[in-house]
Backbone:
């Protein structure tokens, strides 16, 4: 039987959707277990079939899915998996969505828009999820969309540990930069973690009638001669980051390292990022990054150890907060 049995006779079971099983396998390996064998396929008309090949009765089940291309399909698949677990008498079901689908649609910018991130939370609840685990939600307060526990993990410690090896320890030579005014608080946490270095942000404007259209106007803060660490939650088409890198270099930055949690990297991100002048672009693997999206200056860090530690804390009724030395966002 697959799973981890605790001394208290609880059983931890990890199941994976088909979007990015490699990440789920890495998480299971960290937990020293294996994924529960699962059958999943598509019918000719696109409907999805799922069945777990072993009993999950009484299990503490964690359902991992990544929201890569075709994310609407992967959302339905994760919902169906939760439903199957509930109907098979799993004791507790946790949706593990390292990158939360529709996270950017967390409020109405104009009349007659949906709040899709809330709708997704409602769908998970209706399917039977008892809790959600996610990494770096676009807006922290979206936690409240789910009526139940939501473990909000932060990739910052993983990214900071790496970035420190690239920018050195002299805080006077480093500036953390937010690519827009909305993320200055997160950048401030980064600056604290980098020893109290200075802070800047890029004044960005956006045409909300066009998707992924951002213009970086100017830098607010001192960046001349500094190693700039440009931090964001996600890189989608790379427009925001590439524009910000160019403005920073034009303002006299010594160099720019980009650090972001979710590397969506939709076209033309690879081209934009490799040509924008950044010294390095660092992301985690909350999403799969295929070979065609990779480029010389891209570094991908594994989020699997963090997810595994958080899953173990939840299973053991331990503390997820303890993984972060207090709040980081
Ligand atoms: C915006 O608020 C987000 O934090 C990202 O900066 C943005 O969604 C990235 O999109 P793109 O890479 O297409 O500019």
Residues:
């Amino acid at each position: 039987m697959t799973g981890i049995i605790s001394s208290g006779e609880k059983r931890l079971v990890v199941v994976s959707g088909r979007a990015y099983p490699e990440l789920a396998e890495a998480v299971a390996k960290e937990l020293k277990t294996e994924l529960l064998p699962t059958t999943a396929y598509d019918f000719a008309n696109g409907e999805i079939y799922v069945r777990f090949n072993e009993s999950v009765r009484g299990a503490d089940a964690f359902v991992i899915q990544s929201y890569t291309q075709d994310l609407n399909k992967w959302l339905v698949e994760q919902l169906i998996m939760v439903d199957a677990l509930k109907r098979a008498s799993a004791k507790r079901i946790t949706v593990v969505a390292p990158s939360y689908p529709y996270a950017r649609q967390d409020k109405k910018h104009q009349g007659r828009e949906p709040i899709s991130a809330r709708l997704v939370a409602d769908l998970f609840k209706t399917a039977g999820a008892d809790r959600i685990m996610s990494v770096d939600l676009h807006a922290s307060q979206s936690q409240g969309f789910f009526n139940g526990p939501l473990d909000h993990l932060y990739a910052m410690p993983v990214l900071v540990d790496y970035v420190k090896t690239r920018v050195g320890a002299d805080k006077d030579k480093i500036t953390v930069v937010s690519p827009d005014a909305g993320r200055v608080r997160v950048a401030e946490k980064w600056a604290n973690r980098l020893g109290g270095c200075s802070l800047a942000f890029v004044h960005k404007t956006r045409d909300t009638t066009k998707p992924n259209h951002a213009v970086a106007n100017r830098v607010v803060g001192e960046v001349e001669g500094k190693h700039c660490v440009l931090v964001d939650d996600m890189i989608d088409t790379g427009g925001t980051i590439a524009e910000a890198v160019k403005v920073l270099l034009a303002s006299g930055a010594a160099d720019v390292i980009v650090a972001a949690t979710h590397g969506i990297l939709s076209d033309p991100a690879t081209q934009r990022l490799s040509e924008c002048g950044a010294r390095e672009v660092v992301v985690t693997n909350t999403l799969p990054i295929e070979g065609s999206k990779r480029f010389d200056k891209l570094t991908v860090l594994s989020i699997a150890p963090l997810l595994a530690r958080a899953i173990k804390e939840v299973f053991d009724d331990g503390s997820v907060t303890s993984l972060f030395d207090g709040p980081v966002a």
